[in-house]
Amino acid sequence: ERYRAVIERTTDGIFLGDPDTSCVVETNPAFQGMLGYTAEELSGMALYDLLDADRESIDRNTRLMLEKGTHFLGDRPYRRKDGSVLQAETSATIIPYNGGKVSCCIVRDITERKRAERELQQAKEAAEAADQAKSEFLANMSHEIRTPMNGVIGMTEILLSTQLDSDQRNYVETLRGSGETLMKIIDDILHFSKLEARSVRLEAIDFDLRVAVEEVTRLLARRAQDKGLELASLIEDEVPTALRGDPFRIRQILTNLIGNAVKFTEEGEISVRAQLVEASGGAATVRFEVTDTGVGMSEEQQSRLFEAFSQADASTTRKYGGTGLGLAISRQLVELMGGEMGVTSEPGVGSTFWFTVRLEERPAAESKPRPRTELQDLRVLVADSNDTNRESLHQQIDSWEIEVESAEDGPRALRLLRAAAARGEPYDAAILDADLTGMGGMELIYAIKGIPAISNTRLVLQTPLDRRGDTEEGHRSGVAAYLVKPVRRSELYNCLATLLDAPAETFPSPAPGDAPSASGRTAEEDGDETRAHLLVAEDNNVNQLVAVEMLENLGYRVDVVGNGLEAVEALSHAPYAAVLMDCQMPEMDGYEATAEIRRREGSVHHTPIIAMTAHALQSERERALEAGMDEHISKPVKPEKLDSVLQRWVRRPASEPPTSRSESPPTLDAPVDYSVLAGLSKLQKEGEPDILDRLTDMFLEEAPPRLAAIREAMERGDSQMLEEAAHALHGSCANLGAQGMEEICAGLEKLGRSQDLRETSDLLTRLEVEFERFTAVLEAELQRIKRESSDR
Known about the structure:
Number of helices: 27
């Protein structure tokens, strides 16, 4: 009676069902009220009519409770007497009843709970939709702002290449700096909004981890060295370098972390280290650390560091600028790659930012240079006061099975050299840092040359990017070779190989033949109004810079556009004397642009259009002429050839004709056409940034992504993508004299055009090897050209 009283007064509905007949046996008042039936109406009613569920499901649950003694708990819909449906949570089990068994079911009305859940879900979806719309709007607006900003910065670059007085140059430099700062802010917002809108997709391509890290450190080295900071990197031996993943995102994260380290460090050093955390199942987890000796942070500052638009110093008088988005973006990218990111820091001591990524290991033909047998007989001394630099050089040399020893300062290096000579085991080579403690690099070199027992040691001097004085003095003192910090692995290997092959006394650089030069009078001499105005349509930054410098040296005024559509638009606003038109460009290629220009001009006017292609084939010339162009020039464009063509089609500016000089043919088996570099060096303007440095930096920044695009095209079997990527790299190679790479790119482009990708793998391997050769030789050649220019 007590139990019956409880059951009849509970607010939960309770009913008993006969498992044999699947009919209702007994119900309590709460259940009757839930469904709107009387006790008599419910008694004997079939469960199939009561439950809004299929018969099979009801029978299966009943059978499981009978056979296995299981307990059922779940949401069940019930049919009310008025036809509506009741959402209820049902708990059921088998219990003894009158000598038999019944299913005892407890039913709880969850209609309100379900309604609240639906409203909550709708509110969540509405919030997500609003957030998505906000992010997409931000992404679109950032892109729209970024487009005209590109024009602002591009035009300031062109303006800076013209003749300006000192005040004008200062104004334009300030304008360019402000524009670049604004562009950086816009780029941060754009990238963050893309992450928020979940529109960032990770790549999965083969890459070399060492090359990726070296590219970033070399790119930021000048910024660090301008502040007097040491920037060094170390990839520990056990870290696999032949990997598959997204190298672009890894470089983006490292660029942000190293850039921040440079910004917040006034003295000392910055080190980048890669360590292996775990390797299993064909994948490797790599930990990257960027450590600085900068201002450091408190725990409270660290706690908000990775929040969007947040900075360690949030005061209105903060010393350092920025959006506060860089670290938020970096952390999201790391998490997209399945890793973690964090920081350890101490105020006044410095910070270490770290992140991990899991990357797929891939078999590589040989990711490290294979040591030659002769190199293994060398004995090398490394003298460097920076621990990371010294450890990195020691580790790499040791990996080639070369006997190597290290010294942390000049006096110890001198002692080791003398002791080795006294034992009859002199060092074959010594790699000396220019900024050794205790005894500077040059002081140590003079000391070595003054001691007969060790004076024949081949000396390699490590110098920062912009320390020309070191290389000039070192050359006079008998330095055999130079390494620019931070040192790339390939450069180090090639340097040691060169030391082995060359005589001990001299180490001559290849001498190029005299390159043609072009001279023209300045704007002050002629007046801007007498200078013919040309338009260059070219999408490659390196090619743009080369064309502008050549044309301005010839006395022309130049505007630059990045594709055919922009060329057509530019001609509708200005009467250009001629157009130099690249044939393969995005949006609209040169052939289409020429056809549209000719259509608009009709028979009333005819603007000379000169095709610029990376091909010297007669078929390319014929195709250009058929498209309506007037002339064809193949890359690399030589100044005297360009001048000759322009004189036929454009009124010559008031200037002296270029002086022709003899030109030695390039050495076909060399990676560099030295005459091209010599010709480019003649374009240098007094007081302007070094043109060869600018071109080299641009090429080394653009080439790796283009190589990756070629590899991706091969993996996808996309012949059109292969042709376009190879063509883009082809043009840059031609203009910098990378003749080995140029030849291979031409082959890849041809295969892409023919849609025959069978031989591309071998060509890509050759191209990557040739890129390493070219960068190593280019660095030495640029130093030689600058040294000769300084001597003159």
